[in-house]
Amino acid sequence: MSNLSLLVPFVAVALLALGACQESLPVENSDVTPDVVSAKKSSNQSLGRIAVANRNSGTISIIDADTDEVEGTYTLPGDSPQPMYIVWSQATNRVFVGDRANNSVVVFDGDDFSVVGSVPAGNGVFHMWADVKAVNQLWVNNDIDNTTTVINPLSLSVIATVPTPADLVALGGKPHDVLVSPDGNYAYVSIIGVEGDNDYVVQFSTTTFQETARAAVGQDPHLSATFANNALYVPCQNSNAIFVLNRSDLSFIETIDAPGAHGAGMPFNGETFYTTNLPAGGTGGLIAVNTSTNTVSGADDTPFAVPHNIALAPNLNAAPDAQKLYITHSGATANQVSVYDVSGSSPSFVTSIETGLNPFGIAFIR
Fold first, then answer.
1. What is the pLDDT of residue 218?
2. In a domain, 19, yes or no
3. Which domain does 285 fall in, by range?
């Protein structure tokens, strides 16, 4: 989710000059006007915002992380859109939303959430990830085509279409989660549905787009990383474990027992990795792992079933440590995001927020 799982460094990043003018597409907004959103963003807002993709409503919800209230709801253009995952590019201040129904990525302005344009992807748009370095790449997995579309988030052009390794596809494998390394040198794609006892993580060069390493992991793997160390955290739901790999070559480091581990989230400082116990119905739904010792440091129940994807909000007026954590609870008629205080060693439930139907992907927006 993925969900989401690594916050960008909160340092000043020079905005890049915009490229060729993109065709503006119509968008239906809520009663929150762009002027209201801009005024709110310029006020003394310390925690930023959280964006949620509502898969069954065709909308995104924007949450004020200070008040935990929905400040705006925005409809994707196109025919019966199905927003899946959502990422924010700090360098461009754009919000990217994968639309599975229309095989595309819709691009919103990060201030007023007007639609900037859209970019074609492959069939079966699913997880995606934008890097935080100057490599300027957005990786989008297409699990029907068994490809990954690489997009330049500034020019909104397709850089490459990366095939999933043929030998893994022959065994039933499909691309699922994706992550670009904090240094921008590699992208990692989890491959699910592979025959046998293991699924895989494949490492690709962000320069050549060729496979450079792979590792067998548990079943149904997702991905997370941090600037603080060189580890890749891979929660594997159907194996009840988190695999920890070396990001450089995907060599095995260790596993951590974690029931139903699915969602993946990591604050910038990297002191704690968070995962969700998706199948447990809410019991022990959020798990915290100390990344210094790779041991579980705390857990909390969730008030709703199917705790899915994670986003973290820092205190932008202080150190870039996570203060709050947000979880989407997915399902056809679900409409809740739960909120946790994670300023201590163990998460603590705070409140819940009503969004659109089937809240799925979730991301932080400054």
1. 98
2. no
3. 34-365
Q: Which residue has the tokens 């970019």?
A: 119
What does residue 223 show for φ and ψ, rounded to 5 degrees?
-135, 145
Q: How high is the pLDDT of residue 23?
A: 26
Q: How many domains does the chain have?
A: 1
Strands 104-109 and 94-99: antiparallel
CA atoms of 7 and 52, how far apart (whole Å): 15
pLDDT at site 315: 52
List, for the chain, all residue ranges whose pLDDT scores fall below the cut of 50: 1-43, 317-319
DSSP conformation letters of 34-53: HHHHHHHHHSS-SS-EEEEE
Measured CA angle at 131 (ends 205, 338), to 5 deg: 130
The per-residue pLDDT for 321 is 64
255 in a structural domain: yes
Specify if 307 maps to a domain.
yes
Cα 221 to Cα 14, 120, 244: the distances in Å are 35, 26, 11
171: number of Cβ within 10 Å: 14
Nearest to 91 by CA among 31, 153, 159: 153
| Separation CA 126–CA 137 (nearest Å) | 16
Contacts of residue 250, defined as CB under 8 A and 6 or more positions apart, other chains included, come to 201, 203, 213, 214, 215, 232
CA distance 293 to 304: 30
In whole angstroms, give the CA distance from residue 268 to residue 226.
6
Radius of gyration of the chain (CA): 18
pLDDT (0 to 100) of residue 344: 80
Q: How high is the pLDDT of residue 135?
A: 73
The whole-angstrom separation of Cα 153 and Cα 5 is: 19
pLDDT tens figures, 265-310: 998 778 899 999 999 999 999 999 999 999 999 999 999 999 999 9
pLDDT for residue 138:
97
Alpha carbon distance 304, 292 (integer Å): 30
Residue 241 belongs to domain with CATH number: 2.130.10.10
User: In this structure, is residue 237 part of a structural domain?
Assistant: yes
